[in-house]
Amino acid sequence: MKVTSPGRGTANKWRYAQPETGVVFTGFSYWQVCNSVREHRSAMGLDLAEGWEERFQDDLCKQNEQVPCTGRKANTSKRYLKMEDIRRFFVTMKNWKGDTVPQEEAERRAKICISCPFNVVVQGCWGCSNILKKVVELVGNKQTSLDSALESCKVCGCVLRAKVWLPLDTEANAGLDYPPHCWQATESANSGAM
Fold first, then answer.
1. How far apart are CA 129 and CA 56, in angstroms?
2. What does the alpha-carbon distance between residue 51 and residue 18 come to, in Å, rounded to a whole number?
């Protein structure tokens, strides 16, 4: 895919996660992000071979469904919290015993999430939004190095800064269709959970 309107801003800024390093770049324009990525790749000895910008644009388009790219219609659909999301939240909180996964596992999960096109801002009513902010507080002062790039999961509506810390058997994920690259899908398949 190729970016069709590099001069156009996006509602959530432009965002790109460099897969090899996990470093996240954000900006108000494509050119700002592209220049930062070029500098980072140069400093880290990463791909700057001929055609690198086309490969970068393809990755950028895959990571950001709101970016205008060739080969797909502009995604104007928004994700809102639903009553089913809230029900799953309460079931998950009931199942949760206060334990979290190790730091390395939360980092691994966050790295997958930041490059996922389902890492989006989820809209909700004032009350629901405040409840979900409490979820982040529940995991305490635990943070990953990628928290600034984590939003919410478009599939389940969960706040990813908290979700990456929860043991899989705690979560009420029955009937949800996570994409194959998602840690939720791969861990569920390996453990027989969901």
1. 34
2. 16
Q: Is 187 helix (H, G, I), strand (E, B) or coil?
A: helix
Of 82, 65, 63, nearest to 176 by C-alpha is 82
Considering only CA atoms, which of 102, 85, 95 is closest in space to residue 144? 102
Q: Which of 27-31, 38-42, 102-106, 108-112 has the lowest mean pLDDT?
A: 27-31
Q: Which amino acid is at 38?
A: R
3-state secondary structure 114-137: HCCCCEECEECCHHHHHHHHHHHH
Phi, psi of 171 (to 5 degrees): -80, 140
Closest CA to 141 of 100, 86, 96: 100
- Rounded to two decimals, the pTM is 0.63
